[in-house]
Each structure stands twice: as structure tokens, then as C-alpha cells.
Write a structure and sequence with these properties.
Elements lengths: L5 E3 H8 L3 H9 L7 E2 L6 E4 L1 H14 L4 H10 L6 H34 L6 E6 L2 E10 L5 H15 L10 E5 L9 E9 L10 E5 L2 E10 L5 H14 L3 E2 L4 E6 L11 E9 L1
Antiparallel strand pairs: 1-3, 2-3, 4-9, 5-7, 5-8, 6-7, 9-12, 10-12, 11-12
Length: 275
């Protein structure tokens, strides 16, 4: 009869290059337990067959499987993950890659902005003249829908009505929501025109009075970074004892329609203020 080789927990940990603490944790969660525990000394022993199991556990862990997943695989599937499980894990890896690429891009933008300082952040207070606007107000599913409405719905309707845009061109949006919304967003688009035309179902004309003072700030980059810009705007307003007196205007000067590089998107935020 062959002598069965047994390993004390320290020996087993050394062979597998994991700590005794980790082995005790694996035992506690039922992942791999000693083949024998001495009744008197309480020494834990592992056998040769468990080396293969331990090796498989470490392999699955390197592949990104959680310990709970590894336990299910070793208990139910004989140590080999199913095709479906592998597919799910591959999808998760792809999602993580996409997320990391986004983070990499944002970090690169931050690095470049700190290194180059090509765009100086500056607050400007200026007056906004009285204008006539062609106005479209509706509820959209997302803010992205606005950039589909402008060329495909609002633009053609303004052309049909015979609108002539003022020079220099000036357009802006107003967000009428009282809280952040992912869908059902009430938004208003206004474009300065030379004269009023007959209202239609899509376009209404109105006089917009002059704004004596508007705090203006250029926001560069993704619209997801608006909160950072608002933090600066509100800090300036508070530090200088101003009050906001009307809805802010968002003037989308450069964006996805003419700039491939997101860092070059330019939005001027105009906030009517007074002392």
C-alpha cells in the first residue's frame, strides 16, 4: 500500500504561495478544507489531490472570478466554468475596458489642461441686448435629442416660416426642469431672428427683453462636467454678492456637430445677475 502524502497547513501554503490566513479563510467559506484535522493537536493536513484543486482555484481567481463564483464552479461544474459563465465574464471584461478607456481619456484631458493651460478660465460680465427669438419648447427623452431636433425639426420649420437669423447669430437653450432628470426633460430652444413670423405648432415668436448684467463663463468639454463649472460660477456669485434673476442660458457654440475632439466643445453659460 502506498503511503499517502500529507501536508501541514504551513507546507501547503508554501507550495501554493498563499498565506495560512488565506487558507483559513478559504476553509471558513467552504472553498477548500483540510482533508484531515488532528483530534488532539488540531493540526490541519492537506493531501496531494488538493494541490490540483488549489491550483485551479488560483487560476480562476487570476481570471477574475470571485471566490463565491469559484465555489459554485468547483462544487457544481467540476472546476471548469461553463461556456455561458465564460461569455458573461468576457462581456464584463469588455465593459471594464470601455470604462477604463473613458477614465484614461479624462485623465489625459486633465493632464493636458494642467500642463498647457491653453484655455484661461475667465468670468465676463456683459449686457445682453433685447432680441426677437423663434422659440421651440418641448419635452425630450434626453439632452442629446436636442441636437437632433435642431437640424431635423426646428431648422426646417424655421426655414418654412421664412425666418431670417440675426447677425451675428445667437441661439441658446433654457432648462426648465426643477431637478435633474434622465428622461422627460422640458427644454426650450431660442434663436435670434430679424422679425416675427406667424406662429406654428412647432415655433412661436417672442420678444426677449435686454439683460443688464449677465455673468458669462466658457465651459470647454463634455456636458457631464457642467457640475464642475456650476461650482465655479456659484462661488463667483457668492464671493461677489450677486443674485441670479432669471433662467441661465446655454449657448452651444462648438459641439459634436463640428468638433470631433470632445475637449474642443465650447458652451457659453450666461447667467442674468444683479447686486
Amino acid at each position: 500500500m502506498k503511503t499517502k502524502v500529507k501536508f501541514k497547513i504551513g507546507e501547503f501554503s508554501k507550495i501554493n504561495q498563499i498565506t495560512v490566513k488565506t487558507l483559513r479563510h478559504y476553509e471558513k467559506i467552504g472553498l477548500i478544507a483540510p482533508c484531515e484535522v488532528d483530534e488532539w493537536t488540531k493540526y490541519r493536513y492537506y493531501d496531494v489531490s488538493q494541490l490540483k484543486k488549489m491550483s485551479n482555484i488560483m487560476y480562476l481567481k487570476r481570471l477574475g472570478f470571485a471566490l463565491s463564483e469559484i465555489k459554485d464552479i468547483t462544487d457544481k461544474d467540476g472546476g471548469v466554468p461553463s461556456f455561458e459563465v465564460i461569455e458573461a465574464k468576457l462581456k464584463l471584461c469588455k465593459d471594464k475596458i470601455v470604462h477604463l478607456e473613458v477614465l484614461q481619456k479624462e485623465l489625459s484631458e486633465l493632464k493636458n489642461s494642467l500642463k498647457q493651460k491653453t484655455k484661461m478660465e475667465k468670468f465676463i460680465i456683459k449686457s445682453l441686448p433685447a432680441i426677437i427669438v423663434a422659440r421651440h419648447r418641448s419635452v425630450v427623452n434626453s439632452y442629446q435629442d436636442l441636437f437632433n431636433l435642431c437640424p431635423n425639426v426646428i431648422g426646417p420649420e424655421m426655414e418654412r416660416l421664412g425666418c431670417v437669423c440675426s447677425e451675428p447669430g445667437y441661439c441658446y437653450t433654457i432648462d426648465h426642469n426643477k431637478e435633474h432628470k434622465e428622461t422627460n426633460i422640458e427644454i426650450e430652444y431660442c434663436e435670434a431672428v430679424t422679425e416675427k413670423k406667424e406662429d406654428s405648432e412647432l415655433i412661436q415668436f417672442m420678444d426677449v427683453p435686454a439683460v443688464k448684467k449677465a455673468l458669462c463663463f466658457n465651459h470647454y468639454g463634455s456636458y457631464e462636467k457642467f457640475p464642475e463649472t456650476w461650482a465655479k460660477i456659484y462661488a463667483f456669485i457668492e464671493d461677489n454678492d450677486y443674485n441670479i434673476v432669471d433662467d441661465p442660458r446655454f449657448c452651444y457654440i462648438d459641439g459634436i456637430w463640428n468638433k470631433n475632439d470632445e475637449s474642443e466643445w465650447l458652451t457659453e453659460i450666461q447667467v442674468p445677475i444683479e447686486k
